[in-house]
Amino acid sequence: MKKPIILVLLFLLISTLSGCRGRVSRPGAQRELVGIFPGVVKTTTPNLVGGRRGGTFIRADIRDYDTFNIVTTRSQSLYGVLKLVFEGLLRAHPVNGNIEGCIAKDYSVVNNGTSLVLNLNENVFFSDGTPCTADDVVFTFEEIYLNPDVDTKKTDLLKIRDRAVGLEKIGRHTIRFDLPVPYRPFLYTLAHLEILPKHIVEPIISAGGIEAFNSEWGNMRNGIDSVTGTGPYYIKEYAKGEYIRLARNPYYTLREGGEYFEGMPYLDEIIELLDIDNDTVLLKFQIGEIDFYDVKDIDISSGDFETLMSNKAEGNYRIYSAGQTLKSNHFLVFNQNHDAIANEKLLLFQSAIFRRAVSSLIDRNLIRDSVYRGYSYIEGSPERNGSPFYTPVTPLEYDPQKARESFSRLGLFDRNEDGFLDLTSGKPFTFSILTNEDNPFRIKMGNIITESMREAGINVHFSSAGYDSIVTKLLDTFEWDAVIIGFEGSIEPNDESWIWESKGPLHIWAPYGQRPQTQWEKRIDELFALGRTAWDYSTAKGYYEEYQHIVARELPIIPITVPAELYGFRKGFGNIVPSPVTYNSVGLMPYIFRTDHE
Hints:
There is one protein chain. This protein has 2 domains: 36-316 and 571-594, 3-Layer(aba) Sandwich (D-Maltodextrin-Binding Protein, domain 2), CATH 3.40.190.10; 330-492 and 558-564, Dipeptide-binding Protein, Domain 3 (Dipeptide-binding Protein, domain 3). It has 18 helices and 24 strands.
């Protein structure tokens, strides 16, 4: 059996534990209503509006940084900050996730779907006043993203079927990308590959080679003047261990091709406080020293979130729901590996009837209310509701009687009257459920699910282990029966193809297969191939809708719950329309304005 060379790197997808120009509206107080969680609000409309300039917004992070190189950084939080400084050719709309213009105002698909022509906005400037043209785009891709010596994983995004994407300058503001095959997710790729200033970066590489770019450009030892992008803000000041001060890019102008408003960005400054532990960040938010708080799992499990909720009026803030998180979810999966599981048990694990029966023994309402204190979603779709491709699917209801009937259909009976079901051979039917020991939510879920299954006659043993140990079992030794774990979501389904396609390295119920084991897995393979080659959005959405329904029916991964993405915002700001589309709501920042600013 083929095993990957870099198992742990591949497994990083699984959660660590942890258009049109809009009409400018007159700014005013935004109406809000109570969301699906008590005391948590959602805006009455997802529409952004035009605002007015002025004021400061203060955020906080728990780390400091030694580089502002957006290409080489491994820090998700720093990358979020730098997305306010740098832009891609396209972008995902910060609320609905739809692809729209950014540096490029439009795109067209040509050559039978194998080429993409982009026309750039002609009024895009770097924050030092230098125009951004096709020369900057070609330089960024050819010298940086397509250079194997650049210290980044982003080079992998430009390989389709192991062949590199090509590009050509057609004119001063026109670029053509040539793809090995039609590939719609390339649009999302272009939203995550930021354009760099050729006039600054090229001399650095000419003088010191690509290693100078890897280690020197953006390095704090050399100052911040060279960290120049086309985004709505630029880095005005950096004080090590204290703060990053972002100021409005004086050359930022209204863009065509997306939802932009005159006068954006509205805030004069965004201050990111650094090197503060999470407890202090939470306290600073409650007492009014910062304007934003990203609610974390630890806040829910520790009870701090209840304190945060009870202090809303005194602290002059609101808590918002942004929908289902794109961070970790929670699910139960059974091992269907032929080489690892005994035949009788394997036949059960491979049976959709058995998996559906187990799903009927998961009391998701109880888990949501007692484990997540109510702040999670009961969801049957493998996609998250922030994705434009999401299709709502209701999971099976908690029904122990229905589960027992299904077990009987499978020949599972208590033959020796010890209270537990036996296999058709007469042997005891028993298996173990494993989860990572440093995730208190999964420990609680495991205990609830185990108790329910034992009450239904299934002799289940629940235990926990270190995360690295579980990774090894899942993708190397295959010594496991069932696992409660999770994976990160995305607004682009193809990002998770290596989980759902039968040849995918994270097809964890039966990894490293050379061909699909079942007809439904074969159909999912076909749907992903069709979905990523269909440039038309509605056509692609139809393919992904079918895949979601297949997964909900066959349950190779049995959903448990999806945590809510919760944010705190200080009152006195407009355009607070949180969405999980962008990390830490950073995509909203160019739209946010002060409603109390004179």
